[in-house]
Design goal:
Elements: H1 4-7, H2 13-33, H3 45-53, H4 58-82, H5 92-101, H6 112-130, H7 137-153, H8 160-171, H9 176-200, H10 203-215, H11 225-248, H12 257-275, H13 286-301, H14 306-324
C-alpha cells in the first residue's frame, strides 16, 4: 500500500533522516553546477558582502547555504506544530517546505530570499505568539526586528510590514501605539545599519542600493509557458488546501486557529504581489513557502486518501526530475 502521508504523520528520527536525504538529493544539482549566488542589480549591500566573502571557497559557501536551508526546514515545521496548525508530532511541514523550496529547476541555492527566510519564519512565529499573551509589546518589537533583518538580505521583505499591520488589526490590536511599535523596531535596525555603513562602510552604495530598488520597482509577468502552467497547478492546489482546511478542521486545535490562518492568507496575498516585483520571478520563493504552509495543514487534516498519497509521490518525483534536467542541458 501507498503510505507516504502516513509515514510523515510522525516525527521520529527516521522521518528526520528521510527529510534530510530528500533535501540533499534536491540540493545536489546546486553543488554540481556551482550556482550558489545570484548576481543582480537589486541585491542588498549585505548580500553582496556575503558574496565577496564566499569567493575563496564556492563549495564552502554552498555548504553554509545548505545548512541555512536545513535550519529553515525544521524551523518551518516547528512554527506549524508549535502553533497547533498541524499535528504536533508530524513532519508534513518539513516535507512540503523541502519540495516547494526546491521546485524551480534553475534556482540558485543562495538567492537572497533564502538568507532572509529564517527571520521571516521567526517573525511569523512571534506574530502568532502575540495573540496568546496579555503583554504583547515585546513580541511586537521582535516582529519589527525580524522583518528589518530579513529586508537587509532581501529588499521585498520590506513590504511584509504591511502584513504585520493588517495582522495586528485581525488580532484586535488596532490602537495606533500598537501599530507604531513594530515600525519603530524596524527603523531602529535600519538606522543602525545606516550608521555602520556611514562609519565603516560604503554609505553612498547603501543609499544608492535602496534608491535603485524603489526606482526600478515594477510588476513583471514574464514567465515561460511551463512555469505559468506549474504556478497555476500550485495555485489550484492552494485553493483545494483551503477548502480542506476550512471543511475538515477539528475543534481541538484552539479557538484562534482561523485567525492564524487568516493572517497567513494575508501573507500569501502579499507574497503573490512580491512574486511579480523582482526578476527572476521564479526565485521569489516566499509564495512557494506559503503554498508549503497550507499544503502541510491540509495534509495534516486528511485522514485517508489514496489520491493524496499518489499526488504527493508524483509531485516529489516530478520535482526531483525537474531539478536534475538542467545538469544534462535540458530546460523545460
Amino acid at each position: 500500500s501507498i503510505v507516504m502521508l502516513k509515514f510523515f504523520k510522525h516525527s521520529y528520527l527516521s522521518q528526520h533522516i528521510v527529510i534530510v536525504l530528500m533535501a540533499i538529493i534536491l540540493w545536489l544539482p546546486t553543488f554540481i553546477t556551482r550556482s550558489a549566488f545570484f548576481i543582480g542589480e537589486n541585491n542588498t549591500p549585505l548580500y553582496n558582502i556575503i558574496i565577496s566573502l564566499s569567493e575563496f571557497s564556492p563549495f564552502l559557501a554552498d555548504l553554509i547555504v545548505f545548512a541555512v536551508f536545513i535550519l529553515c526546514v525544521f524551523l518551518f515545521n516547528s512554527v506549524l506544530s508549535a502553533n497547533r496548525l498541524v499535528n504536533k508530532y508530524s513532519t508534513f511541514g518539513a516535507l512540503t517546505f523541502v519540495l516547494m523550496m526546491c521546485c524551480v529547476s534553475d534556482l540558485r541555492s543562495c538567492y537572497p530570499f533564502m538568507l532572509s527566510c529564517p527571520f521571516i519564519l521567526m517573525a511569523m512565529h512571534t506574530l502568532f505568539l502575540i495573540y496568546q499573551t496579555d503583554n504583547p509589546e515585546n513580541y511586537m518589537m521582535n516582529v519589527g526586528y525580524f522583518i528589518a533583518i530579513a529586508s537587509l538580505f532581501y529588499y521585498p521583505s520590506i513590504f511584509l510590514m504591511i502584513w504585520v499591520f493588517i495582522s495586528f488589526i485581525i488580532f484586535g490590536y488596532r490602537k495606533l501605539r500598537y501599530l507604531l511599535i513594530p515600525f519603530v523596531a524596524f527603523m531602529i535596525i535600519n538606522f543602525i545599519v545606516i550608521g555602520l555603513f556611514f562609519l565603516i562602510g560604503d554609505f553612498n552604495a547603501l543609499i544608492e542600493s535602496y534608491l535603485t530598488f524603489f526606482k526600478n520597482m515594477s510588476l513583471s509577468f514574464e514567465l515561460s509557458l511551463i512555469n505559468t502552467i506549474f504556478l497555476s497547478i500550485l495555485t489550484i492546489l492552494f485553493f483545494i488546501s483551503l477548502l480542506i482546511i476550512f471543511g475538515n478542521r477539528n475543534s481541538d486545535y484552539g479557538s484562534n486557529f482561523r485567525k492564524r490562518v487568516g493572517v497567513s492568507i494575508v501573507l500569501t496575498i502579499i507574497s503573490s504581489v512580491i512574486f511579480f516585483m523582482q526578476k527572476p520571478l521564479m526565485s521569489n520563493l516566499l509564495i512557494f513557502m506559503m503554498f508549503a504552509f497550507f499544503y502541510a495543514i491540509a495534509l495534516s487534516d486528511i485522514k485517508k486518501s489514496r489520491i493524496a498519497n499518489i499526488m504527493m509521490i508524483v509531485m516529489t518525483l516530478m520535482i526531483i526530475v525537474n531539478r536534475y534536467l538542467p545538469i544534462f542541458g535540458i530546460m523545460i
